[in-house]
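Open question from group meeting: does this chain pack into something compact, or does most of it stay loose? Before anyone orders reagents, we agreed to write out a predicted structure and look at it together. Recording both the input and the output here so the notebook holds the full record.
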Amino acid sequence: MSQSDILRIVATDCGSTTTKAILIERNPQGHYRLVARGEAPTTVEKPFEDVTVGVLNAMTELEEITETTVPEAEGFKPGRRHLIHDDTVWRLRKSGEETKPRTGELEGSDMYVSTSSAGGGLQMMVAGVVKAMSAESAERAALGAGAILMDTLAVDDGRKDYQKVERLRKLRPDIILMSGGTDGGTRTHLIEMAEVIHRADPKPRFGDMKLPVIYAGNREVRSEVKEVLGASIEVKVVDNIRPTLEQENLGPARDEIHELFLEHVMQQAPGYSKLLDWASEEVMATPNAVGKLMESYAKEEGINILGVDIGGATTDVFSVFQETYNRTVSANLGMSYSICNVLKEAGTENIARWLPFAIDPFEVRNRLRNKMIRPTTIPQTYEDLLIEQAVSREALRLAFEHHKSLARTLKGTQQQRDVGQIFEQTTTGETLIKMMSLDMVIGSGGVLSHAPLRAQSALMMLDAYQPEGVTMLTVDSIFMMPHLGVLSEHFYQAAREVFEYDCIVKCGHCVAPVGPAPKNPNEVVVTVRGPGVTEAVPFGTIKVIPLGRGEFMDVTIEPGKSFDVGAGKGKPVQAKLEGGTVGIMIDARGRPFALPTDDKARIAKLREWLTAMGLPLPA
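Structure tokens returned:
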């Protein structure tokens, strides 16, 4: 079936608690748009113990929604869509054959794709030789494949062998990724690490199957490692992650992790085999699908992307810079179950510094502890909302720092430099995240996606990430990136159109000059000139130029002599800026910006920035 024949697509994301379904159709103009979205509780537990029951319930909601609500402005025919037939997802073509012919144009779907995390997240451990080299490469492979990293063992991590054995037995990972040694390099350290794993004899979380160990190290030691691990462990051999010091080859390990995840974790979800049979394509792990979407979109559009999904228990950060994809999971940073971990890591003072009103630090701590006790509650007052958004800034900042520490160039490599590069390159192992070259930030997760006002989401991202130069700020409206991620693997055009039109909400471009605080606190540090607009913005302030979604403005950005917006200090930049739900945001607070240390001055500045963004002030 060619892609030009695809009229209707159904996609589901089977989460641990909720199954979310979306319906995509091609309009008369030939563009793919979101028609409806439905959700239902995931049914992996008693009394149903069948994930497909939740899928059908979510599909039923899609059918009911389309009976009364269809975006007719897009040219879609009104009427109930019929998406279920004989208690299965009604897919018209399966393995190249018709399952049931369409008697009306509102019946059936041409494609059904799904993601799943209903069997629980993929929990992995990594074992390497050198913590800062082979073990770090293995971490990048595991995280990029959608795993939660429980621990990293290395020969030089300072722990005794018996401590490593105890750790393996206690954590019981789903998969262990073992790496180390360039091809033809170290042998003894790899055999020692294999002996540690063999002695621990860790049992997987599910069933009585053998624990899978993926070996991605020195190819010359494969047979010896296999022999040491023994018959009680299932060894999967893939190409070396670090075949040479100058090379990193993550693809084969990531692919094998994904295959084992499907086999060992996702299939533990009751009814998963039925879901696999219904789907047009292979079911994909939810976090892996989100990463696939960002990676595909960045490469196809030729841009650099930073994405975040901040949840109740964890915060995932994704980045694609110069087509290099990285993902990290901060498993202890979240907005409900992990909120006190954010308090512990950031400290009360760092959270309270974002509050535009005076409050006792003990009161902040007590409110956050109440949130941990009742994690599903939502803020009841504007003060509560501002406290929650203050916590989010610190969670986002800490997760981003963690991401930058792993998204790095290879350590231990020799670099050949010409004369021009001598002054540009620093040491090996520097972060790949270059904020001046960042084109787009995508914010997702409840605190960002469901903020009462989009300007609040934009300000949280401005404060946490401090983008530089010219950057588009966007928010994922209703979290359908997993659905579009699995779709992008097989039908990129449809995924891209729905992603741009229905998924992300553009807040607008941000212009942020980089430079230190000037001696004169009121000095103009950037001037933006465009048709009918001349905005000279003094240091320490934010200015918003109203410009709506889909509206563009050609401007000249003139930074002060000590400030840079991408072309060098004091050099102007020509740019085509796009507006959004907030408008063009000129952030002249400097980079990195620092809040005033005096409480009264700090509160005054925070209130000034809220007003500049069009946000209400607390009493």
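Observations to bring back to the group:
The chain has 18 helices and 26 strands.
The chain has three domains: 3-116, 123-264, 300-329+406-413+430-612.
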